[in-house]
Amino acid sequence: MLDDLKFIHEKDVADTLGIAERQAGQLSYEFEVSQEPVEAANIVYAGMGGSALAAVVSTSWPGYDKPFELVRGYDIPAYVSDKTYFIAASYSGNTEETLSALAQAESKGAHIAVIAGGGKLVEIAQEKGYPLAILPKAEQPRYAVLYNLRALLQLLVAAGQQPANVVDDLAAQEDFLRNSVQPWLATVPTANNLAKQIALECIGKSAVIYAGPKLFPAAYKWKISFNENAKQVAWTNQYPEFNHNEFIGWTKQPVEKPYAVIDLRSDLEHPRVQRRFEVSAQLLSGMRPAPIIVEVQGKTVLDQLLWAIALGDFVTLYTALLNGLNPAPVDLIEKFKKELG
User: Fold this and answer.
1) For residue 206, with 0-12 CB atoms within 10 Å meaning exposed, 13-18 middle and 19 or more buried, which class applies?
2) What dihedral do alpha carbons 229, 235, 240, 243 form, nearest 10°?
3) Which residues of 13-34 are buried (b: 16+ CB within 10 A; e: fewer)?
4) Alpha helix segments (H runs only) across 68-210
């Protein structure tokens, strides 16, 4: 089925596989932002769903030399003050939780910046003169995560919260990412296509994706992509925390475990984390499905994050097609927003 290009084109009407193939270009997109340096003791980023993904990635690469917190909700931390650099991000620009958080940050006198594709956030930023990065049009926020990451880094660099080289470092990975996705394209047969092979293992199962701390942002992106692309329930967790609780959960009930376990393994993780993957797989043999082991490629943490995120995109898009679905729409989320009022 996944080697039938006619079938793929009929189902993938939004060309999400094409979006996944072309996403490397997002790394070098130049945002027009006007941001002055700020004195900040901490950084707070407010965003939900796909709009939070870039912030999750940024905690692993490039990381922060001061406190950084991601707010996924209506309320901001009590410590937010005029020493806080506050970034409000929403692809639609109308996310109510983010708008609520922004209003609270304004009342605390925080330094404000905005990342949005339109809506009320753009209106507020333009009206009040906040630094603004306008995201290009995308089919869904989850398909714009690298645009969002680039925008975030440009704002942080201009604000003096990251060294200037991180933007160039991100753009320099464009060729690496473009080349990395070639073996996963629809024209590559299943026999030689890792993404198609993993998708076939995931049909009819709930995916559980594990990673160490460095690659956990990629595992979280896989979880979201299984939910929104494939319309399948998925979970994620990270080592070493896994071994302190969830590890035991695999040993007993339910006896029949309809899950696909996926390990995103990195040779850049702490040696003890790498060992934990191996020992856990040995001790859980016969008590949980054998993990699909993905040896993530790349020489740096940034390489590996980009590689793993892109592979997850292709895996979940192929899983959606195997489910007979168009991967792009998230109709139930839109209906929920309307019902919520």
Assistant:
1) middle
2) -150
3) eeebbebbbebbebbebebebe
4) 96-107, 119-128, 145-158, 165-171, 174-180, 194-202
Q: Name every residue whose Cβ is closer than 8 Å to that of residue 320 and which is 6 or more positions away in sequence.
A: 11, 229, 230, 231, 326, 327
Identify whether 244 is a catalytic site residue.
Answer: yes
The Cα–Cα gap between 53 and 176 comes to 21
- DSSP H helices in 182-230: 194-202, 216-228
Biggest CA-to-CA distance, the chain? 60
Active-site residue flag, 69: no
Q: What is the Cα–Cα distance from 202 to 74, expressed in whole angstroms?
A: 35
Start-end of H helices in 142-215:
145-158, 165-171, 174-180, 194-202
Of the residues 223, 228, 231, 269, only one is catalytic, namely 228
pLDDT in tens, the chain (341 residues): 899 999 999 999 999 999 999 999 999 999 999 999 999 999 999 999 989 999 999 999 999 999 999 999 999 999 999 999 999 999 999 999 999 999 999 999 999 999 999 999 999 999 999 999 999 988 788 899 999 999 999 999 999 999 999 999 999 999 999 999 999 999 999 999 999 999 999 999 999 999 999 999 999 999 999 999 999 999 999 999 999 999 999 998 787 889 999 999 999 999 999 999 999 999 999 999 999 999 999 999 999 999 999 999 999 999 999 999 999 888 887 788 788 88
SS3 236: strand
Instruction: Give dist(CA 299, CA 113) in Å, integer.
Output: 33
Domains and CATH numbers, the chain: 5-12+175-322 (3.40.50.10490), 31-172 (3.40.50.10490)
Catalytic one of 6, 137, 244, 252: 244
